[in-house]
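Exercise: predict the fold of this chain.
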Amino acid sequence: MSGLRGLSYQEVTRRLRKLGFRLYRHGKGSHEVWVRDTDGRVIPVPHHGSKAIRTGTMRAIIRETGLSVEEFMGL
């Protein structure tokens, strides 16, 4: 099993910061755009208050980081 589960916005952004991403700007609606300066990767992240980010969205965010699900969840 992949071990993928929905994470809160705070958990996702903590992991993204560990990977070198930073908040670039606020996007449309309740989304933010995070960027990593070393390689220019850009990741949109939803910010819906205290609701967990769904697993499908989590999978897309993880895919954009270039890591596997196991690597991302182990951060």
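Check your answer against the key: Helices lie at 9-18, 55-65, 69-73.
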